[in-house]
Specification:
This protein is α/β, with parallel strands linked by helices. It has two domains: 129 residues, no CATH class; 190 residues, Ribonuclease H-like superfamily/Ribonuclease H (Nucleotidyltransferase, domain 5, 2-Layer Sandwich), CATH 3.30.420. It is built from 15 helices and nine strands. α10 packs across α11. The protein starts with 14 loop residues before the first strand and ends with a helix.
Amino acid sequence: MDLDPHQEPTTTRRHKCSACYQQFKKKEHLVDHMRVSYHSIHEPKCGVCNKHCRTLASVREHLTGPLPKRHCAEIFASRGCDLCLNILDSPNALRLHEELCRLSPAYHGNMTMCIVENYARAEMDVPSLSMGSNGNQDPEVVAMDCEMVGGGSDGSLDLCARVCLIDENENVIFHSYVKPIIPVTNFRFEITGITEDHLVDGMSLLEVNKKIEKILYNGESISRARLEGGKASILVGHDLDHDLDCLKMNYPLHLIRDTAQYRPLKRTNDSVGFSLKYLTQTYLGYEIQNGTHDPYEDCVAALRLYKRMRSQIHQTEFLMSNESNVTFHTRTINCFDPSRLKELVKMSPDDLLSMSVADYRCWCLDRRQNS
């Protein structure tokens, strides 16, 4: 059949997601995509094309992976920071930025000097030893790390044998060796540097728990801390679930900032987190855990990662007024109810993105909450 030369060729209209740029034949499919993707302004994104990704690892692959976006990769190669993945205005601006972005390893001298042999310091009102970022005496953020030795017949049972807490200014506010509640069968000396002599004068696990709770709850009642936080501190660390479990402690989930569980810091498949050693080298620019693990060094690394993620600027005025006090898991909110489909298909992709919320609590909200 002959085609009418005056007839315009028909084209299928595509509906492109404003976040990840995935295209759909029907608007309904785009709405379904927004319902399950939980795109938001808090997601990591490419500084060149603004494509949203679920993790920073995905952004890195987009820019420097085996099959990068060519235009983005070229710009990133000349003006992109390998640590924070930001794009600078010029190569000279990049050089100045990298001097600040690449941090130096934490130095504390001899950790044993931080321990008062008679534990007199531990008997003091420890929270008064540090000052929060807002100038108050109450520490707003506390980082914690534990070192584990082995118990059980094969030494595979993790037992807390050393714990360190620091404030937001990287000052040690508590440090102690801990007497395990069952016999130690493997001191894991190559990793922990702990021997039997270190534990002879260590605190009991119960006593350590009381000291840590006194620091973290900061005089706030446990019931109020579990509901809204109050004066209780934000607890930062890496794989804190494991540390708290070994300490036989619980802490309100909404006050925990775990670098092993924070979605932007996870692997591309979003199922497993990276090691603290990898995250520190990749996003802070220096190495840790070369030999014996140092709990102070690990505390500082987790704290610096938290502060770097917290300092990211994502918010708008709308979010500042509506998310500043969010303390629940945002997956409970879904703006794309199927009953609103007729209304939603009339909206533009940009409007759909503007009303979408993340399925995790972005740490940038902590900065607004403190201010």
